[in-house]
Amino acid sequence: MDQLSQPTSLLAIGTQSRLPPVLLHRFDDTLRVNNRLNQGVNDVRTQFKDGVCWALKAEPVSGKVPVGVSFLDIRRPYLQHQHNYHYKAKYGQCYTTEPSGFLPAGIAMLQDTLLRFPPLRQNAERLDQGQHFSLYPTEDMPLTDFEQKVMQTRHLICDFKAEAEPLDISDPAWPSDVRMCNIVVALNISSETCDKPNTAILAWAYSHHIGCTDMAYPALLADTGILPSLAAAAMEQRPQPNTVQEIDMCNDIKMDLGRTLRYTPTLYGEVVCHVSM
Questions:
Q1: Half-sphere exposure of 243 (CA within 13 A, CB side)
Q2: Residue 168 has pLDDT above 60, yes or no
Q3: Is residue 27 within 8 Å of residue 13, measured between CB atoms?
Q4: Residues of 177-209 as b/e, b for ≥16 C-beta within 10 angstroms?
């Protein structure tokens, strides 16, 4: 998201709530609910009913909710700064959401503030590092149900390396299928050359996800999310490989993606065109 917008709710009356069309980061799998004296520092307000802990409905007021689960839309220049801070503060594993994915019933998300913490300054001015989103319950529900709904927002494990963080993952992590290696190469090139920041970040995230999970080629073609389109666009823009074998393989990949997405790919040796994202 290139222009930082005013706080907006992603809950529309009569429709299923969706995630924003950007890659959001969520640090830590656990919810903060243990501060009984000051529930304002918790991720959700709670109350015991008949021995069961309930997550209480939150209602936005003036573009904000009293408490909420934090998700971050981090601008690319500040990814290292944010991950370093959360790692050193001993937050848990970072994961990312699926852009424009559906949220489970009973929860919604609100873009409420700019991301300015931990602070960075330039010429005495505090830098805006992205946007902060809050996820909250739209109805009372058992806390365990709310926790499960929050966990359903997980899409990709984020392997962005904070300083001094040992991940035991080779850099880059290559999948075992050579076809997927070619797709990872194309995504890495796209992440470095694409002039659309959100698409560049998505290409970077998915290239690492494919390697770290050793995603199978059929799984990529069967994916119902944005990955096949992202891979197709990256393959269309990838420079021609140096060997005949690689050219033939990349053309086969393009044809498979073309059949999956119902478009006519440009094979190497033909006039270059682009897949729109």
A1: 4
A2: no
A3: no
A4: bebbbbbbbbbbbbbeebeeebbbbbbbbbbbb
What does the pLDDT look like over 169-182, one tens digit per residue?
334 467 888 899 88
CA nearest neighbour of 103 among 71, 127, 55: 71
Chain centre distance of CA 246: 30
Distance of alpha carbon 29 from the chain centroid: 15
- What CA–CA distance (Å, rounded) separates 180 from 213? 11
Neighbour count for residue 170 (Cβ, 10 Å): 9
Among 92, 110, 111, 87, which residue's Cα sits nearest to residue 27?
92
Rounded Cα distance, 60 and 66, in Å: 7
Q: Helix or strand or coil: residue 63?
A: coil
Q: What is the dihedral of CA 270, 272, 274, 275, to 10 degrees?
A: 10
Query: What gap in Å lies between CA 51 and CA 70, rounded to an integer?
Result: 28
What would the pLDDT profile of 180-205 be if each residue is shown by its tens digit? Answer: 988 988 998 888 888 887 788 888 88
User: Is the model's pTM score more than 0.90?
Assistant: no
> b vs e for 23-35, b when ≥16 Cβ sit within 10 Å of the residue's Cβ?
bbbbbbeebebee
H or E element, residue 235 = helix 227-237
As given in the structure block, the two tokens for residue 125 are: 């001015």
SS3 of 130, please? Answer: strand
